[in-house]
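Sequence in, structure out. First:
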Amino acid sequence: MSHIDPEKVAAIVRTVAEDEILSRFGALGSADVIEKRPGNAGNLVTTADIEAEKILIRELQMLFPGTVAIGEETVENDPSVIKVLDEEAPVWLIDPVDGTSNFAAGKEPFAVLVSLIIKRETIFGLIYSPMSDEMAIGSKGEGAFCNGKPMSVASAVSLEKSSGSAHASAWGYEYRDIVRPKLDNFAQMVNYHCAGFDFLRLACGDKHFSLYRTLHPWDHAAGVLLHKEAGGYSALLNGDFYSGADKVYGLLTTPNEEVWNSINAFLRPH
């Protein structure tokens, strides 16, 4: 897919964000916010998610013939769609509004995530934060750039000087109360409730690590690639590398492998 023009993808994302997302920010009516499953108030979808995803799918497939585009809401409506990641055609994977709970509440941050996956390998990732106007783009083996400037992860520091975020249940909910007190040993813990914005901060060097629990590919594929291209190291808690396609559990992102090993050893509950 050497003919993919990152700037054309960025232009599509920027336009859709302005027309379908920013135009609705802080102006959602009750009919614009829906619980994906009744009674689950933490799992929301808004009109902005739905409309932005439709247009991104249409525009990306039109601009890059031979590719397939799916999004978080597509998969929500038909989980079998995710099987296209195993097929020959390159797949655009879209999270139209990452951080929907923030967005629905009229709060920042939120982001648009787009990745291109071929046979379960992420070769292109984009994260756009509309409110801060940060457009981060990375291609496999070609580095990561935010608004045209090279991105670089934070330098390694000691655990007690590190800033990060961590899901205390990453190893399982039964270990939450063992892991949580350990987090007080770090310098600062910051949770944005938006994986895309979190990966932006990691790849820009503004924080040192993040420990995630539930990994949906549309939330993490782009960010893992950008973080790696910015010089960072990430792996699943069992040591495997994240493919960008599976729904799995437990991912730790750090500046390098040595820091990964030390944080993993410190937080691991067993």
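Second:
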Amino acid sequence: MPASRSQLEFIRRLPKAELHLHLEGTITPETLVELSRRHDAAPLSLDDARAIYQYQDFSGFLMAFKTVTERLRTPEDYELIAWRMLERLAAQGVIHAEVYVAVGIVYYWGHTEVEPLFAGLERARTRAERELGISTYWIFDAVRHFGPEAAARVFRKAAEMRADHPSIIGIGIGGDERRAGADVFRDLYAEAREAGLRLTVHAGESVGPESIWGALNIGAERIGHGLTAIEDPELIEVLAQRQVPVEICITSNVRTGCCHQLIQHPVRSYFDAGLLVTLNSDDPAMFLSDLEDEYTLARNTFGFTDEHLRELAANSIEASFLPADRKVEILRQIEQFC
């Protein structure tokens, strides 16, 4: 049964965090056209831009993501997309976001300096905190199939810049799990931890539970996706006992073909098994589902009640990298929310 207007309003106003969100995946076709007009000799039409977002599988999604990021070249580009992302998040009741920035792709496109581009992100972040009341942390994301040497450059840049920019909270590895497991990044993750960075890993999205074990073994504090944990009862037990946050992205998993049918998604099984589940949109412009939609989907398809949704919102705060006092403050807001 579709959610009523009052139920949708409950979801929209519920204080919550978004923890698995790729900055570049928030770029809508309309914004892509705007970026193309800035940079391309033959700018994309809106139909051209929309066609880029049509793909059949996970490999096609990765190619679409690559094509979109080609148009990000200046600090002003990054400021534009970050501000529009934060506007949309604030409108959905998101009061804190931890956003992946594809620094590995920045280097891939030949940018030698991240700092000028990052200045654009920071302008959007500080404006959004001032005008919209939403806080933001940045997670520098490496492309795992580019290998450890490329990842080292990303992680060390995060550690270097964090001294002046505490909004840089952590590091992660995205990309194609089928081409690179987590273990080759073990030493780099230990180095990042020593530098004070928080550790996330995309795992169990397009390959089996062994990828999630690998992520845990290199020190991952949060698991991105974790879709295939359901195949390993021992792993489910470990995730539940340790309360390792699992960043669930339902629509993303279906759109990339990693989950073959919506009803097969294990989100409800994870929740019922006591895992620390959070809901996230991943790449909302590419998957046509924002965080509000994910909460609505949890209600309509998987039978989550208002109290369950409130628990998911609280999980998103518990799983965040916010300081303890700020977590307590927001958790009280969620507890009192009606």
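Remark: Residues 75-91 form the longest helix (17 residues).
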